[in-house]
Known about the structure:
The complex is a heterodimer. By secondary structure, chain A is of the alpha/beta class. Chain A folds into 3 domains: 2-119, no CATH class; 134-269 and 378-545, Rossmann fold (3-Layer(aba) Sandwich); 274-369, no CATH class. Chain A has helices spanning 64-71, 113-119, 167-180, 182-188, 221-229, 274-279, 289-294, 298-314, 322-336, 342-359, 395-416, 430-433, 441-456, 472-476, 488-491, 500-506, 539-542, 550-571; strands at residues 2-6, 16-21, 32-39, 43-59, 78-92, 107-110, 129-134, 140-144, 156-159, 198-203, 240-244, 267-269, 385-389, 423-427, 458-464, 480-483, 514-518, 526-529. Chain A has a 10-stranded mixed sheet with strand order 12-11-13-10-14-15-9-16-17-18. Chain A has a 6-stranded antiparallel barrel with strand order 1-2-5-4-3-6. In chain A, β7 and β8 (140-144) form a beta hairpin. In chain A, α9 (322-336) runs antiparallel to α10 and α11 (395-416) runs parallel beside α13. In chain B, strands 1, 2, 4, 5, 6, 7, 8, 9, 10, 12, 13 and 14 form a 12-stranded mixed sheet that branches. Chain B has a two-stranded antiparallel ribbon with strand order 3-11. Helices cover 27% and strands 29% of the residues of chain B. Chain B has a domain at 31-62 and 166-276. Chain B has helices at residues 2-13, 140-163, 199-206, 259-272, 291-301, 307-324, and strands spanning 15-19, 38-40, 52-53, 63-78, 83-96, 101-113, 123-125, 128-134, 168-172, 184-189, 212-213, 217-220, 228-234, 248-254. Chain B is built from 6 helices and 14 strands. The relative contact order of chain B is 0.18. The chains are: A alpha/beta, B alpha+beta. At the A-B interface, α1 of A face α5 of B.
Amino acid sequence: MRVGIVLGTKDATPFEFYVEVDSTQSLQVDDIIVTSSEYPRFGKVKFYGIVDQVISRLEGLETNEQARFHSQGLFDANLTYYCHIVVTRTLAEDGTSPKVPPKPGSEVRLADTEETKLALYFDKMEKKKIPCGLLSNNAPAYLDLDFLLGIKGGHVNISGKSGVATKTSYATFLLYSYFSCLKEIMEAYPEIGTTNTHAVIFNVKGEDLLFLDKPNTKLSEKDRKMYEAMGLPAKPFESVKFYAPPRPKRGQYEMILPNTESRIEGVNTFAWTIREMVENDLLWYLFSPKELSDTSQLYLAIRMATNWLNREIKEGLAFHSMKSMILTLEERINDIMERVAIGTRDAFMRRLYRAEQEIGSLIVPEALPFEDTESYSIDWRKAQVNVVDIHRLSDRAKYFTVGAILKSIIAEKENTGTPWPLVFIVLDELNKYAPITGDSPIADIVLDIAERGRSLGIILIGAQQTASEVTHRVVSNASIRVCGNMDTSEAEHSVYGYLGPLNKKRVQYLTPGQMLVYQPDVPQTVLIQFPMPAWATRYQESIETGYIDKDFMISEIDMIREIEKDLGNEEK
Amino acid sequence: MSELLAIDLIKNLQVHQIWWDDSISEPVSIRDDAPPVDIETDVEVKGKWSPIKTERVDYRKKIVIVDGVRRIDAHLILGDTGRSALLGEFVVGVFSLEEGKVIKRVNECVIILPPGIRMKESLVIGKAEYLPISAVNATEEGVYSSFIQRMRERERELAYEFSKEDYIVIADGPLQVPFSEVGVTLGFIKSIRRPYLYGNYWNVVLGLKKGERTPIFIIRTGEDLPPKYSWYLRLKEPKYFESPLFGLVRLEAPSNLKIEYVQNLAQFSSGFLPYIISSSTLSNRAPENLAPLESLERRLRAMFHPIDHIRATLRSIIAQAYKEV
C-alpha cells in the first residue's frame, strides 16, 4: 500500500531518509516501509526501513502569529506530514547491499509480512530463531538464537520498571517461546543432540510464578490471537518444578513445609544441611556484600572457619542447625583463628549470629529418621523449568540462596565439560546481586556467568529496574537487550546507547506488554508487543480448571496455621 | 532551440542596455485612483454625517479575496532611440475565507515592447515564457503602466470568474473599469493618497474609531465611466504618534447594486474586516493589509520563477546576441 514519497527537501542517505506522507494516508512510529530506486551499477535497489519519528508542521510560516492566523482560517500554509526513516537494509536484485540513497520522489509502501522479514533480517536467521513478540504491523518478530544460545553471543538483559507484564513476564514469555520451539531448535542445532534445555527462575516478587503449569483461564481472545500470530500455542509450561524455602520458626522435629501461601501442592522445599554448606564452600554467602567490604580481614576468618569445619565434618562431626554450628565455632574460636585479630574474630561471630537469624531457617538437620535430606536440594535437570521462590526471604537469605544455587550449577557444568544441556538463569534485581560499585562473592558469581557462562552453557536472562546501577560487564555481555517502560532520565545513561536518541525519549510511554528489543544483527531497536501469559499468574486465574480445589487449599493452609499456633503456645 | 530563438529575438530588439534594478518607483500618472469629477454625499445619510458603528460579524461563506503581485525582471533599452522595454512577471490568485486557503494561482510572464516593435513569438528564458505585449507609449512610464494594466486585467478576470459564481469578491485596489455586471466585487483601497471628501465630511473620516465607517457616498470619475459607491472604514485606531490616516481604508462597490444591498456590504465590511487585520510583525503594510491578503501575497510571490536563474540566462543570451552582431 502506497503511503507517500521519499522527501526531496531533506537529505536522503543510505542510512536514513524522510518520507512525505500522502494526505490520504498515515504513517506512525515503528511502521516498516519499503521503497526502491534504479541505479546503473546495481539495478533496482530496495530500501527497507523503520519509521522512528513522525513530524507535522505548517510549511512556509515564520512566526507563531502566522500559525494562529492559519488556525483562524486567515492564513494559508501547507500542512506537511513527514517521517524520518532509519534504513535497516538495502537490497539489490543480486542480493548485495549497495550503500546508495533512495531517490527523492520514489514511491514508499508499507512493508508486507514477507518484506518485514527482509527488513529485520529474519530471513537470515533461517530456522535459528524464536518468536519474541509482535511488531506494530502484527507480524511476528524473532530473536536470533545464535545470539541467545551462546553461539555468536548470549544472555539477555531486560530493563524497566516493575509492574504488570514487565520484566519477569517477558523473561518467562521468552522461555515459553523457546520451549515451544524446542523441537525445531534441536533440528537447527544438531550439536544440542538429545539433551533437553532447562531454566532456573528466581521468583523475587509475589507468587506469580507458582502457577506456570496451570492454564490462564482468564486469557483474552486478543491475547490468544497474538499467540496464534506468532505460531505459538497458548498453553501453560509443560514441565515445571517449584521450590520454596522452608517455613521459619519451626521446631526441631517438626515437618518441613514450603513457605508459600497460594499454593502448597506440588511445591518442593529447598534447604541446605551444614555439611552441604561447608563442603560446597557456601559460608561466604552468609555475609552481605557490605559486611565483607567493611572488614577486610573477614575473608581470612571465613576461610579458616570453613577449613576447620571441613576437617571436623569429615571426621564425623554433625550439626542439626546453624545455631549449633555457631556455638561450636564460638567455643573453639581461639584454636581455629589463632592468627586472626581478636577484633576480627568478634566481628566474624557477631555477623554469624546476625546471619543465623535470617538464614537459620534455610538450614535443615543433616539426618532425620523419617526424611531423606536429598529431597531438599534443587535438581534443575528434573524439569525444564525450575521456579525458585525467594520473594519471602530477607536480602541476606536471597544472596545466600542465589549464590549457593548458581555456584552449584557452575560447578556441575564445569564437571561435565559440555555446554549441553543449556540452562537459562532468570534473575531479577541484578542491581542487588551485581551492583556497579563494590565487590562481593555473589557479584563475582553473576559476573562469572556473564563472562564465562556462554562456554558453560549457562545463559543469564538478567533483569533490573535500572541498568545504570548494574556493573557494566554484566550488561555489556548480554547480546540481546530489552527495555520496557522507564524514566527518560534513566534512559539517558550510556548503557542504553542501543536505544538511539528517539527511543530514549519514548521509553516512558511504553505500556505494559510493550518492549524495545535490540539484537546485534538488526541495526534498529524494534518495538514489540507480547501477550499476557497463557499460564496462570494467580490462584484465581487457575481455578476454573478445577485443578486445585479451593476449599481444600484453604483448609490445608488453615490446618497448618492451627498447628503453628498450637506449637507457639506450647513453647510459651 | 528556444535559446537560439531567444538570441534571435534579442538581436532583433537591438538591446542596448539592461537595468537589473527593479526598485524603480511607480510613475504617478498610472495610479489607480483617478481624480473624482463629482462626489454625492447624501446617498445613505441625508444631511449631517456621523460615524456608523457595526457589531462584529464573522461571515465567510463564499467570500474570496483577489490580489496580484508583480516583479520586474529587467528593463531593456532598445537601439539608440532610448525606447525601453520591460520583462516582468506577475501572479494573481484567490484566497477563500471559507476554506482558509489560497484556492487559485495564475502567473504570467510578459515582455512589454514599445509601440511599433513587434515580436512574433514569446521570449523563452529558462522555464519562463515572456509573452510580447505592446505598450501604450514608448516611454519608461508607458511601458511600466502597460505592465500594471496587464496585471489588473488578469485580476479583474479572476474577480469576474468568481463573482459570476455568486461569490462576494474583495479585490485589492480600486474597482477595475469596467466593473463586472454579474455578482459582487468590492474594491479594497489600502493607500489613502487622495481625500475624496472635504470639510466636515473629512473630519468624520479622521474621527472614525475601530470598526466604524462613514456613510456611503458616490464617486464619479468621468462622463463616460460608471460611478462607484464608496465608504471609509477604520480598521485600527492610530496611536498618538501615528498619522490620522493610519488604519484607514476605503471600499468601493459597483453602482449597479441596490443601495440597500450596498448598505449590507458596508455593514459586513465594518463588522468583519477590522478583525482580520495583520500585525506589524506580519506585514510591513499592517494593519491595512488584511492577514489573508498578506498570506495570499506570500503564496503568490512563491510562484515567481527564480530571478537569479532568469537574469543569468538573459545575460548569457544577450552576450551571445552581441557576439553575433
